[in-house]
Amino acid sequence: MGIVLVAFNLRPAITSVGPLVGIIQEDVGLSHWSAGLLMSIPLISFAVMSSLVPKIAHRLTNEKTLLLGLVILLIGICIRSISMTVFLFSGTLLVGVGIAIGNVLLPVVVKEKFPQKFGLMTSVYSSSMGLFASLASGISIPLAHDLQFGWQGALIVWGIPAVIAIIVWVLLIKGNPAHSNKVKNVSTSANRTWRSPLAWKIALFMGFQSCLFYITMSWLPEIIHNYGISRGAAGWLLSLTQIIGLPASFLVPIIAGRLRSQVWIACVLGMCSIVGYGGLLLGSSYPILIMSIVLIGLALGGNFPLALSYIGIRTRNAGQSAELSGMAQSTGYLLAAVGPIFIGYLYDMSHMWTVPIITLMIVSVLVMTFGMLSGRDQYI
């Protein structure tokens, strides 16, 4: 229950922003590249924090560190809902720090608590993330317009799941103080991991698939809106993208956990991504647009839990998982942080979505390549 509640909080604070980007730009006065920076700040936080989280958890225990992350997340959600540029960006930074802690530690906690059910538990919490991520994308515009919350109210709503998760984790820590003290087993000697070629392949796979995800969350509504679809409908289509990915989120880790090699899984997901983004070039046709969204959803929904699965499958214990999780997410999200800004910059330069979409297809090829290389039967 605690794991799932943390998972509920790891996407909505970010995916709720995409459909609202246009409104926020008009209200605060942001260019496309600075709006892309707004979406990239959490990723920069992920990159900086991910290598530090195992060390913090080693001192505080995994449970207390997760609780700390939830509190920071809640503070960030509240601050960024103030309609001033400085609060918008500083709050977003804190949101990124809070989510980074959960991103790194959830695979470690699952590896430690459920070593024989790692694939199943990864499916459960990654599907939980996808469910709330899709919900956040879909209801952002209705909250802002129909219920007249404004973009500020539509963002601060996502503090509610954080409050619930904080209460549960406080009870978990108070109810199991002795057990919490036993969790100080996260190794901080990660030199071997940083020298591992396989670890770097997993890190690049994590980075490029995250790059695709956050670019899509940031700019897909604007791409769809460019074809004459209303912002509200574009938000729901973004939500559909994530709902379509839920079956893949649930099934991919289970299948991956039962196989020695996951190469073919990465190949299939990569082809879905390439064809899906390619279809956006023909997006003026509504059936093609829907088919593209379905394929993109399957790819995004499957690649992220596959990356999480590699963290458990390619390591032998929770200590190694912590090292690999921190290293892969630190370097991976640093790479991903460039994505939304770069796509926004390309649009500012060309005033068309053609070049950004072609760039997404190229990134999809890289995701497939490093996913297949990481899927070979070996350990770090």
UniProtKB/TrEMBL annotation:
InterPro entries: MFS, MFS_Cyanate_Porter, MFS_dom, MFS_trans_sf
Major localisation: membrane
GO annotation, cellular component aspect: plasma membrane
UniProt cross-references to Pfam families, sorted A to Z: MFS_1
Membrane topology of the entry: Multi-pass membrane protein
Keyword Kinase: no
SUPFAM superfamilies: MFS general substrate transporter (SSF103473)
Membrane-spanning ranges: 33-53, 65-82, 88-110, 122-143, 149-172, 202-221, 233-256, 263-282, 288-311, 331-347, 353-373
Protein name (Swiss-Prot/TrEMBL): Transporter
Organism of provenance: Paenibacillus antarcticus
